[in-house]
Amino acid sequence: MMIAESGKLAVGQLSQKVYYWVLVLEGSAMRPSTQAKQAKFLAEATELFFEQGYEGTNLDQLIERCGGSKQTLYRYFGDKQGLLKAVVANFTEQAWQVIELKDAKGPALRQQLVEFGCRYRTLLNSAQLAKLFRLLIARVNQDPELIGFFLDRTVRYSQQLLSQHLAQLVEQGALVLADPELASDQFLAALRGRSFIEALLVDLQQQESAASCRHHAEAAVTWLLGDATSA
């Protein structure tokens, strides 16, 4: 992990990458009060970015909501661009917990995949994720590095996680799949469905029901497994 050496560089000279790693230092290396301040800044910054967009948000608004000073903000995040990256990092770390997978075989495998599908689909259709996508789409030309960072921690991460999980099941003899990577891509696409695009473009008045979500997840799992489950 890359950490800025204290006193070697002025705040304005540090790169965005250094600022990011300063932000994600192990919790034990920071005082609880510092962690609480950072969490407050991130929560309020997320709300401001979602409400007003990147261009419409300024750091003075954040200071007004959270207190403190710009110097503190710069020390934590570098600048507004670094703050947005920290918001993305914080959001995606929470999302990782949603799509965690554990070993399972037989009937338990189907149940695990259905539960994964429900969690994944619910996350994709959430208002918060839709707002984050819209925020980042507006930054595609201005900050391609951030877009790559986001994709690595979301779309690419979830497919890699599932692909490795399916490949491990194939090795264990629990599944028969010719191409686990392709299967994972198609399975996740089946879970996303039409509703994901709609959620990005329209503020949905209500979340998908649990029954509907499970119905879609079970259909996707049935397609994935088919006759692939070994006897």
From TrEMBL:
GO MF terms held by the record: DNA-binding transcription factor activity; transcription cis-regulatory region binding
InterPro entries listed in its UniProt record: Homeodomain-like_sf, HTH-type_TetR-like_transc_reg, HTH_TetR, Tet_transcr_reg_TetR-rel_C_sf, TetR_C_Proteobacteria
UniProt DNA-binding region: 58-77
Keyword DNA-binding: yes
UniProt key word Transcription regulation: no
Residue ranges annotated for the HTH tetR-type domain, each copy included: 35-95
Xref: PANTHER family: HTH-TYPE TRANSCRIPTIONAL DUAL REGULATOR CECR (PTHR30055:SF146), HTH-TYPE TRANSCRIPTIONAL REGULATOR RUTR (PTHR30055)
The protein's name: HTH tetR-type domain-containing protein
